[in-house]
């Protein structure tokens, strides 16, 4: 009798932990989508600034070098987004009609949909850092992301990065193991005797709780990055508009600005370049990257 009640309590505790995990997983996907949305806005701001600086005539060599570096860093994010988008669309076509192909892996494209898949891919792996997803498999960033997003098994080996832990946590219990045995639903506990069943339920509940903690910590980092990105959006566009309007009076010619001794505008142009550089760093920041 005691063991039967012990089993019931252990399984209920397991179910509670699963519910909490599912809640955190859903919130992490939502947070990733919010980050991706703010990054897309920031991307447009940076693109506008780069085009303005690139079109300015008679720039000194040191300014030209900074503008070119800005272009390179911006292109990393833009190209990464395009590549992942192409891969996600390709995978969706391949998995269309395949019953449960994405859901079976816990975190496939079919389970999340293209918008969430894009958000997750760009959250955990961005171009400037050599993506965290790539560190897990050793494959090229896009292909590794695809293998995971498309429903492939996520193998947390090699790099052992914080982002890898978060991705593994997000992949769901089917992707986790305890002593080489995959975690499964509570219904399969019925194949064991009461005492053994209770022990298994408690052990698996602890593993799910551990993965939930990883998701919570990752969500905090995502929210912090989203806040920084949004603050940058709020500040950078008005500043750009001010600099652009004043530079227009000099016909976008750096020589004319210098001849007029408009040192304030010269300084503000330098500040604008620095702001744009900081913005590209935010675009290319990978969540969960270990120092």
Number of domains: 1
**Helix percentage range:** over 70%
Q: How many strand segments?
A: 2
Query: Strand content of the residues, in percent?
Result: under 5%
Shape: elongated
User: Radius of gyration over alpha carbons?
Assistant: 24 Å
The strands making up the biggest β-sheet line up spatially as 1-2
Mean pLDDT: 75
Distance between the termini: 52 Å
Instruction: Flag low-confidence runs.
Output: 97-110, 127-161
- Overall structural class, as computed from helix and strand content, comes to mainly alpha
SS summary, helix count = 10
The description of the largest β-sheet is: 2 strands, antiparallel
Strand-and-helix sequence, N→C? Answer: HHHHHHHEEHHH
Quick structural summary:
The chain is mainly alpha-helical and 291 residues long. It is 73% helix and 1% strand. It has a two-stranded antiparallel sheet.
């Amino acid at each position: 009798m005691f063991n039967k009640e012990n089993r019931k309590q252990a399984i209920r505790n397991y179910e509670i932990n699963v519910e909490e995990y599912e809640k955190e997983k859903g919130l992490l996907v939502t947070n990733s989508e919010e980050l991706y949305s703010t990054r897309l806005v920031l991307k447009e701001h940076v693109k506008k600034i780069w085009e303005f600086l690139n079109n300015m005539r008679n720039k000194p060599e040191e300014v030209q070098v900074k503008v070119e570096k800005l272009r390179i860093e911006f292109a990393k994010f833009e190209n990464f987004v395009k590549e992942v988008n192409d891969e996600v669309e390709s995978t969706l076509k391949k998995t269309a009609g395949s019953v449960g192909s994405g859901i079976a892996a816990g975190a496939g494209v079919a389970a999340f949909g293209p918008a969430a898949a894009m958000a997750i891919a760009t959250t955990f792996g961005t171009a400037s850092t050599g993506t965290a997803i790539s560190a897990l498999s050793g494959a090229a960033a896009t292909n590794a992301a695809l293998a995971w997003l498309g429903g492939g098994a996520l193998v947390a080996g090699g790099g052992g990065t914080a982002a890898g832990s978060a991705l593994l946590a997000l992949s769901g219990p089917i992707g986790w193991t305890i002593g080489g045995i995959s975690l499964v639903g509570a219904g399969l506990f019925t194949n064991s005797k009461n005492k053994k069943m209770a022990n298994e339920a408690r052990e698996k509940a602890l593993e799910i709780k551990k993965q939930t903690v990883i998701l919570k910590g990752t969500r905090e980092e995502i929210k912090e990055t989203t806040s920084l990105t949004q603050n940058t959006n709020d500040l950078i566009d008005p500043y750009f508009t001010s600099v652009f309007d004043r530079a227009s009076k000099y016909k976008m010619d750096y020589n004319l600005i210098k001849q007029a001794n408009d040192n304030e505008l010269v300084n503000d142009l330098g500040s604008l370049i620095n702001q744009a550089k900081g913005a590209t760093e935010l675009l290319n920041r990978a969540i969960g990257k270990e120092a």
